[in-house]
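R.M. (postdoc): so does anyone remember the format we settled on? I'll just put the structure tokens first.
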């Protein structure tokens, strides 16, 4: 009777949870995923009863890397509706099997899983080198796809424009054609622009002479653009400008140049394809007003600041953000 009680106690101890440090003397380490621990406990008992294998329960295998288990470890997890088994072998190899079975802790389920583990252990056994058969071991390589973000190429933009401006100092309307060219990455652009007034600035002098002045405006600026609707965009622009012109008084002619800053606000509507209609307004602020010095005269030709507005017809290919709408 005493021997019977001792035998029952040993059997119950074999089915108990592992103790700290016991895995060092175990034949196998079962590593179930979350939710499969009851099944692993039943499988451990079947392995001991059928093959005399001592198995301990370890932590779950790394998610997505169930094949990466060391030798003597068994991964148990669910994959694609089946029970996945991975037995680590020597040399970094892993022997795997998939069992289409209801995942529960019933005795028949534990028996089936134990038989599959025993079969995988037979495959992972490596005899001495002299007696090893000429066969290649099954090695699992896991390759993960790395999605690279799409690269946006620079697209050209070209436009024609009509400038309407106002000189607060001379109280004169400024009007003339303009053109621009630039490169856009996504919604944002860097552009080069040029404008030439149709009419020259003419000012009678006190001695009866007529001062004529006409200047070309060239700018380079960046445009930060945002989507305001399916076909509408808004933009803020900031850049540098220079004006180069000729002032003439009687028989005297003189080249004039100056440097300044241009800021702008834009509203654009995409008509069809790459074609847009643009309304834009801004302010030109000169670092120093341009002056013409001819003889004893000193005449200011440019304002310190000039407000302006522009109506443009623009060719700008739609960006990926706009194509997605």
């Amino acid at each position: 009777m005493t021997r019977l009680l001792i035998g029952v106690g040993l059997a119950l101890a074999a089915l108990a949870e592992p103790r700290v440090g016991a895995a060092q003397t175990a034949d196998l380490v079962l590593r179930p995923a979350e939710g499969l621990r009851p099944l692993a406990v039943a499988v451990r008992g079947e392995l001991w009863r059928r093959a005399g294998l001592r198995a301990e329960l370890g932590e779950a295998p790394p998610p997505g890397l169930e094949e990466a288990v060391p030798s003597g470890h068994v991964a148990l997890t669910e994959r694609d509706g089946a029970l996945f088994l991975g037995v680590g072998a020597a040399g970094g190899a892993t022997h795997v099997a998939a069992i289409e079975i209801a995942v529960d802790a019933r005795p028949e389920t534990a028996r089936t899983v134990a038989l599959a583990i025993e079969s995988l252990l037979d495959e992972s056994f490596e005899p001495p080198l002299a007696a090893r058969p000429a066969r290649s071991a099954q090695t699992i390589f896991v390759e993960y796809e790395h999605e690279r973000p799409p690269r946006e190429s620079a697209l050209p933009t070209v436009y024609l424009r009509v400038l309407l401006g106002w000189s607060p100092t001379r109280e004169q309307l400024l009007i003339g054609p303009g053109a621009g060219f630039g490169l856009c990455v996504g919604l944002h652009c860097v552009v080069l622009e040029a404008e030439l007034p149709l009419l020259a600035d003419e000012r009678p002098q006190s001695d009866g002479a007529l001062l004529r002045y006409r200047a070309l405006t060239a700018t380079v600026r960046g445009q930060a653009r945002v989507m305001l609707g399916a076909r509408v965009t808004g933009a803020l622009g900031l850049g540098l400008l220079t004006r180069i012109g000729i002032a003439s008084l009687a028989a005297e002619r003189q080249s004039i140049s100056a440097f300044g800053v241009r800021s702008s606000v834009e509203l654009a509507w995409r008509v069809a394809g790459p074609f847009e209609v643009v309304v834009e307004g801004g302010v030109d602020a000169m670092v120093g007003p341009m002056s013409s010095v001819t003889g004893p005269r000193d005449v200011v030709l440019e304002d310190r600041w000039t407000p302006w507005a522009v109506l443009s017809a623009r060719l700008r290919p739609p960006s990926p953000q706009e194509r997605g709408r």
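R.M.: ...and that's the designed sequence above, right after the tokens. Also worth knowing: The longest strand covers residues 252-272. The two ends are 83 Å apart (CA to CA).
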